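Researcher: Here's the sequence for the chain we discussed earlier.
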Amino acid sequence: MKILISNDDGIFAEGINTLANALSDIAEVVIVAPDRNRSGASNSLTLENPLRVRTIEKNRYSVQGTPTDCVHFALNELMKGDHPDLVIAGINHGANLGDDVLYSGTVAAAMEGHFLGIPSIAVSLVGDVNFKVAADFVVSLVNKQKESVLPTNRILNVNIPDCTAEEIAGWQVTRLGSRHHAEDMIKQLDPRGEEVYWLGPPGQRQDAGDGTDFFAVDHHFISVTPLQVDLTAHESLGCVKQWLQQTEAEG
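Model: Thanks. This is the structure I predict for it:
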């Protein structure tokens, strides 16, 4: 089995290296990751500059670009004609729960693998300590995939509580929770007296009840959320069509 691993924390991050070491016992692993931290890059592509790629060692490459760039380069150039069986993004340093998936470079890397036809999983540790626990769970997922292919064409978004293996309560298949709007931006002056702005803290949780990814992680369960890429609001097609026809008639 061949697995492509990427992330958004950068090629030298602890999470991706712990994951690669764990998976190398059961699969051939190829790492293609950003040369620096690109958290929050979402699905952005580098369009106006060339991608510079550096070989770190065999099957290990850094890309001067985004997580999406990394997976795009790996599947369309580096591994062209010899595609992996699986794309895994992570292990991310910190959670990707609820609305956070819209901004996550980790989820975006998995999404690019999905776009290009490869089963893909995004993995995040809700903290920065127990990466080995998270990696062991990913190994179990990969073994399941080897025995029986996941029966759905969806991305899996996995969030693992940052606790010991003994403290993990199990796993739950969840839906995405949601937050309130982010708090106000923070305005400051730089040393030259010019105004600069920082993004405010994330909003408080709005939907974090039983069945959500937030709830599962809070109760020491591993959250596994299937994600779909089609953003079409299918149930709204009819009413939007009716609204346009009505507006057209009134005009």
